[in-house]
Amino acid sequence: MYALARELLFKLNPETSHELAVDLIGAGGRLGLNRLVCQTPRLPVTVMGLEFPNPVGLAAGLDKNGDAIDGFAQLGFGFIEIGTVTPRPQPGNPKPRLFRLPQAEAIINRMGFNNQGVDHLLERVKAAKYRGVLGINIGKNFDTPVERAVDDYLLCLDKVYAHASYVTVNVSSPNTPGLRSLQFGDSLKQLLEALRVRQEELTVRHGRRVPLAIKIAPDMSDEETVLVARALLDTGMDAVIATNTTLGREGVEGLAHADEAGGLSGAPVRDKSTHTVRILAGELAGKLPIIAVGGITEGVHATEKMAAGASLVQIYSGFIYKGPALIRAAVDAIAAAGNKR
Q1: Is 173 a catalytic residue?
Q2: What does the domain layout of the chain look like in residue ranges?
Q3: Distance separating alpha carbons of residues 194 and 336, to the nearest angstrom
Q4: Is 317 annotated as a binding residue?
Q5: Does domain 2-335 have CATH number 3.40.50.300?
Q6: Name one GO biological process term (predicted).
Q7: Confidence band (pLDDT; 50, 70, 90) for 41?
Q8: From the candidates 173, 265, 273, 311, which is the catalytic residue?
Q9: CA–CA separation, 287 vs 143, rounded Å?
Q10: Is 319 within 8 Å of 326 (Cβ atoms)?
Q11: Is 265 among the annotated ligand-binding positions?
């Protein structure tokens, strides 16, 4: 059934089909129909002090505004991450800005944090019936100077804290000018320290500690990745998400749209993402959980991430190409790999 739906959706402009798919998934959630599509087995796991019914989640980016939380949850995801959301609404980059590369099971996007702002997202969260693990991914507005980025992150953190199971800090999108510079050196340390202090204040205010995860890029050298890992440990972060999209074009050379600017996701980023997970795991030595995302298009790819050191996985582009069946395939593969150990 999904193969037919994909064939129809892929005849449309990529961004139009994305919006339509989210609308349809949201409608299916409101009607309770999505539960009929995919019955995902339970594989409980505890990470960041949170109880997950299974370790396969929806990555940020598919539901930027939280418009279809119930719909995605009913498909069997063990957790949902919405966003990236910014303090103020913004349109994102000029269209066209989303491109499919089906021969490589890949997507290139330069969306630019298009979203309706944190206040709209919170209204959608409050309206949702979902009571499972919900991550909210936060970023800065495109016109906020990088040297003042911490203000945007703290504003978003203040607003979403009471409504999130965990909060993801996105410092790795390639589509907001200067954002990736926040992953390095003093800029990273200052941001993380400010977030940690605010997290402690909010914990007291709300009587509840909400974990902070930092999402990083796959394009750093091994040495840079190690430095990031040390900074996360030094500042007391709760998790790292590896990875965002890549600026590289390995695996799509010569394909239509391969030369479009933006971040590449899907199958071609798989090995690069898994390598980053492996480097992080070696440095973190189990002191900080890793959520792996990037290139999971088959169940076995999820087990590769877990074997590299991840505690949870997320899917995005693989879901576009394979549909809800990928969720169960990933859970089943992780369970089978665990039974063999």
Answers
A1: yes
A2: 2-335
A3: 41
A4: yes
A5: no
A6: 'de novo' pyrimidine nucleobase biosynthetic process
A7: confident
A8: 173
A9: 36
A10: yes
A11: no
